[in-house]
Each structure stands twice: as C-alpha cells, then as structure tokens.
Amino acid sequence: GRSRIAREEAALLKKADEVLDFLTISHLKDERAGNLSGGQKKLLELGRTMMVDAKIVFLDEVGAGVNRTLLNTIGDAILRLNRERGYTFCMIEHDMEFIGRLCDPVIVMAEGRVLAEGTIDEIKANEQVIEAYLGTGLKNKEAVS
Q: For the chain, how many structural domains are there in total?
C-alpha cells in the first residue's frame, strides 16, 4: 500500500542524494537540468546511470565542450565508478590526454575497423594511428624537415 510506496520513494531520494554527493554536485540538487552547463549535464548523465546501477556505460565525446576543471571532475567520477563500484566504461573520445588518464586498453578505430590497440604510449607512437589522424606519418615529416 501507501507505506510501501513511501518507503521506496524515501529510499530513492536517499540514493539520489548519495549519487549527487559521489559526483560532487550536491549544490545543484534543486537546479533544473536545463539550467546546467554542458559539463554539469554530463555529470548528471553519470548520475542517472548510477541510479539504475548500470555496469557498462557507453560515453560519446564526454569531453566535447567541457572546461578542463569540470572534465577533471568527470574523469575522477569515472575512475571512482570503475575502481569502487566495478563499472566498465566504453568511450568514444578524441581528447588523448583524457583517454590516457582513463583508458587501458586504448582502441583506435578508423573507417569502421580497429586500427590499433594498446597502452596510450603505444597508441601515440603507432605510425598507422599518426597517419590516420594527423594525415601524415612521422617518417614523412622527418624527410621534409
């Protein structure tokens, strides 16, 4: 009856407060989602995945249009969700610094196929990756200079 619903609602509110604390956005608790910045909205999206206890989270361009400070906060939350709560993240991202901090392994795709897989250092040194994403390989640049 009503008491069961009230208990469930109280439990959900408590969980939501814990999620906001975890993501360091408790101060935005009463703010409308439409008023949040791009980075704050991305933290809110992480919060939504935490409410349903998702174990695999797909993130698309999480760094796009987000200032560096907020991006670090998002990165911290992703690392903690992975280490403390066992979440697995699969992310599409072009910010190599962000990827290097968060991802192991790093898989580079080009034209729908896997181009390279390895640590961030292996990826950064990979001639095919350099060719695909910078347009010209290191060897060509050395020949020119």
A: 1
CATH assignment at residue 74 = 3.40.50.300
Residue 62 lies in a domain: yes
Between CA 23 and CA 77 the distance in angstroms is: 6
Instruction: Show the tokens assigned to 12.
Output: 């959900």
For 1, 42, 51, 53, the CA distances from 47, given in Å and listed in that order, are: 29, 9, 6, 10
63 in a structural domain: yes
Q: What are phi and psi of 8, to 5 degrees?
A: -65, -40
* Domain range enclosing 49: 2-103
pLDDT tens-digit series, residues 87-115: 999 999 988 899 999 998 999 998 899 99
Residue 137 lies in a domain: no
Q: What's the one-letter identity of residue 41?
A: K
- Judged by phi (left if over 0) then psi (alpha if -120 to 50, else beta), residue 90 lies in beta
| Model pTM score | 0.81
Which regions of the chain does DSSP assign to beta strands (E)?
56-60, 88-92, 106-110, 113-118
